[in-house]
Structures are given as C-alpha cells and as structure tokens.
Design brief:
With 451 residues, this protein is an alpha/beta fold. The chain is built from 18 helices and twelve strands. It has five domains: 117 residues, Rossmann fold (3-Layer(aba) Sandwich), CATH 3.40.50.620; 98 residues, Glutamyl-tRNA Synthetase, Domain 3 (Glutamyl-tRNA Synthetase, domain 3), CATH 3.90.800; 71 residues, Glutamyl-tRNA Synthetase, domain 2 (Orthogonal Bundle); 43 residues; 72 residues, Arc Repressor Mutant, subunit A (Orthogonal Bundle). Helix 1 crosses helix 9. It starts with 7 loop residues before the first strand and ends in a 5-residue tail after the last helix. The mean pLDDT is 95. The structure holds glutamic acid (GLU). The site of glutamic acid has 8 residues, from loops.
C-alpha cells in the first residue's frame, strides 16, 4: 500500500558513464512523481563498483541533472555506507539467508553447460549449502575466498506495480543471487535494498529491466524485516529499430544533446512523453510536465523514440520561448540588452536552435554583402526610404511605397529587397528585422555597400 505521507523517491545511477536520454526517463519520472505530490527526490550514487565508478562521472551526473532542471533534495553515496551493508549482511547470515560459495566462474560455467545439456534450467544448484565447516576451511586453505549468495525462498513474489499492475516473479526459477563478491565488495542488489529501507524510500520507480531484481529484492526487504516500497517499472526507451540505449557507448548522452544545442525542456519532453499516454509535445515547465505524467497510463510496450523528433520539439519550444529565457545567450552573442526583446521576437520563429540566432544578429548588425538583383526596385526603395524613427509598421508602408512606384508586387517586390537588405534569399519577416537594421545600414546596403 502507498503510504499516505509525502513520497520519497530516488534516482540511483552508477557513476560509470554519462547519463543518456534513456536515463533521463527514470530520473524525470521520479522527480515529476515527487513534484506532483509534494514529495522529495533523492540522488543516490550506486558506486559500490569501485573499479568502474569515477568522481568525474559523479560530477557529470550532477551537472547533467542540473541542466535538465533537476536539483536533488538530498544526496547519498553507497560507497560511504558500506558499514550499513555489512550489518545487514550479518543479519542475513544469522538467519541462514546468506551463504558462502567457493565455485570459480569456470566451475559455474561448466555446471551451467551440463544443466543445459540435460535440458534443465541453468540455475545455481546450491551445492555450497551442503559444505560443512571443514569443507570451507579446506577450500580457504587452498586460497579460495567466498562469494555470498542470498538464499531465495522458492515461491512467487507478487506486487501491485504502479505501471504494470499486478506483477509477479517466480523466485523458484532463479539462481540464488550473489550479493557479495569474492573481494568483499557488494553487487547492486543488497545495498539498494538496505538504502531503500534505511532511507525510507516510499516508491521505487525504475526501468522494467529491474523487474526480476524486484522479485529478489522484495524477499530481501522481508528477510530484513523492512517495509516493502511501492514499485513502478516503466518501459525503456529504445531507438526506432528497437535497440536499447547504452550508457557506455555515450549514445545520446545528455551532454552531447546539450552541446548540440537542444533545450533541456525538449529533451525532457521526449524522455518523458515517449511511450506515455500523452502525445509527444514540447512542454516548457517541469510542473506542466508533472501534471501530464501518469504512471498508471504509461504504455507497457517499449518506448520507441526518434531522435529527429528533438529538432521539432526544440523549434516549437523556441517559437514560444519568452526573451528572458534566451537573454543570457543573446547577450553572449553580442545582442545589446535594449535590442534583445525586439530581436528575439523577430527571429525566434525561424530558429531550430538558439545558437542560430547569432547568424541573424550578424544580418542585423552587419557587415552584410548586399545582393542587388533588381536595380530598379532597389533604386525605388532607396528613394522612398522613410525617415526614422522606425517601428513594426515601417516595412509595410515602405514596401507599399516601392510597390506603387515600380508596379512590382509579391515575390518580385520582396525578394530583391530582402536580397539587398540581408544578402540572403530567406530569413525572418523583414517587418521585425528592419527596425533593428536601422535606416543608416539599410541605406548603405541599398546602395550596394557592405554594411
Ligand atoms: N544503479 C541501478 C541502475 O542504474 C539502480 C536501479 C534502481 O533504481 O534500483 O540500474
């Protein structure tokens, strides 16, 4: 049963690589779940794998989450909590639920092959359970060190999954999982339970690749006498051809998306809404996104996504983005603060990425090499150039005057003016650009001067 108090959720990445779009999904689903319910979000680094975990990846995770707009309410690191895991392991040992095994990888592999050859499921045969003290001492005398397995109850574990509904794992069909390696280090399974229990995690929201773990972990919660949290296993993001995203390949890493100039809101929208009950659309704010997410209505099919969809989402976000949000970046491009609002209004509908605004600022500020495609129209434009001040209506009245004088209209009128004023045959509405270009530069460009 879901506790009635505010939820506490966690995102628990291993700092062994950069976060990618597929990791953004559980991170955001947890954050949004907590946000919609006045709950809290914990970032827990699953860094018990000392060989593959690095400080650089830990820092990158914080940075990438911050870019997504995620600031954890609390933080924890498993590497600092080993004493707690040792204590839990002792309790499991005392209950006969954690037992020492001495098989080598090769021995286990041989056994597996034999089982498969006989048409049996390749499940660990619990041979180590029948070792006596003398057997263990003899093995240790040979230099062998134990790894430790959790003794599963051979029964079916059931839970009411927030995404998948009534779910179950038949633990009789699983090998007793190794919780502690030969070198004494912990695999993910036990520390995760000890922390979820010790930290009071109310809801475990994670990918459906963990469904089998949940069967095992529920038994560990129970063996430790801890309350079992509510589980939600969301579908995984896959590429359009059904391929999973691999953290180690850096495929669609959040930092590469950031470097490519995507807005965090576009990435958030795609990571969360793909495979949800909602149409994929550009959602600017976290609260708005939180209101759309309903784990119970998330599809159970793999969430196939198309990275090209990011381009459309990004463009749609920019088209509605208030200048305040772009201001710092516009300023860094050299757009003066007093021109930022008018400039942004003039160009945002033409942008795929904010960085492209720099190209349009160069068109405004110059120098631009004008293209004089129709000398008569350009001459008429020079002669009718109105006095300043210029505003949003200037283009309309001025181009009307040129039309009257030359008889040209439509594209025949506008294209030569655009080419002369901007040097380009495409671009944002000239009504918005013209007041920014200003009379002096416009006059020089119409005269064929680079200005
Ligand atoms: N470190 C695990 C992972 O990244 C955490 C899984 C979980 O949420 O329990 O897959």
């Amino acid at each position: 049963m879901a506790p009635s108090s505010a939820p506490l959720v966690r995102f628990a990445p291993s700092p062994t690589g950069y976060l990618h779009l597929g990791n953004a999904r559980p991170a955001l689903l947890n954050v949004l779940f907590a946000r919609a319910r006045g709950g809290r979000f914990l970032l827990r680094l699953d860094d018990t794998d000392r060989e593959r975990s690095t400080e650089a990846f830990a820092a990158a995770i914080e940075e990438d989450l911050a870019w997504l707009g995620i600031v954890p309410d609390a933080r924890a690191r498993q590497s600092e909590r080993v004493a707690t895991y040792d204590e839990a392991a002792d309790r499991l040992r005392a209950k006969g639920r954690l037992y020492a095994c001495y098989e080598t990888q090769e021995e286990l592999e041989r056994r597996r092959k034999r089982q498969l050859g006989r048409g049996l499921p390749p499940i660990y045969d619990r041979a180590a359970l029948s070792l006596g003290d003398a057997d263990r001492a003899a093995l240790e005398a040979q230099g062998r060190r134990p790894h430790w397995r959790f003794k599963l109850d051979h029964r079916t574990v059931e839970w009411d999954d927030l995404v998948r509904g009534q779910s179950h794992v038949d633990c009789a069909s699983l090998s007793d999982p190794v919780l502690i390696r030969e070198d004494g280090s912990y695999l993910y399974t036990l520390p995760s339970v000890v922390d979820d229990a010790g930290m009071g995690i109310t809801h475990v929201i994670r990918g459906e690749d963990h469904v089998t773990n949940t069967g095992v972990q529920v038994q560990i919660f129970e063996a430790l006498g801890a309350p079992v949290p509510v589980f939600a296993h969301h579908n995984l993001l896959t590429t359009a051809d059904g391929e999973g995203l691999s953290k180690r390949l850096g495929h669609l890493s959040l930092r590469s998306l950031r470097e490519a100039g995507y807005e965090p809101a576009a990435v958030r929208s795609l990571a969360v809404l793909t495979g949800s009950a909602e149409a994929i659309r550009a959602v600017a704010g976290l609260d708005e996104l939180a209101a759309l997410v309903d784990l119970a209505r998330t599809s159970r099919a793999p969430a196939r996504f198309d990275p090209h969809e990011l381009d459309g989402l990004n463009a749609r976000l920019l088209h509605a983005m208030p200048v305040e949000e772009a201001a710092a970046r516009l300023s860094a491009m050299g757009v003066p603060d007093e021109a930022a609002a008018a400039f942004w209004e003039a160009v945002r509908a033409n942008l795929g990425k904010v960085a492209e605004a720099a190209d349009w600022w160069r068109v405004v500020a110059g120098p631009v090499a004008p293209v004089i495609a129709d000398a008569a129209i350009v001459a008429a434009a020079s002669e009718t150039l109105p006095p300043e001040p210029w505003g949003p209506e200037t283009w309309k009245s001025w181009s009307a005057a040129v039309r009257e004088r030359t008889g040209a209209k439509g594209k025949a009128l506008f294209m030569p003016l655009r080419l002369a004023l901007t040097g380009l045959d495409h671009g944002p509405d000239l009504a918005g650009l013209l007041p920014l270009i200003g009379r002096e530069r416009a006059a020089r460009r119409l005269a064929g001067e680079a200005a």
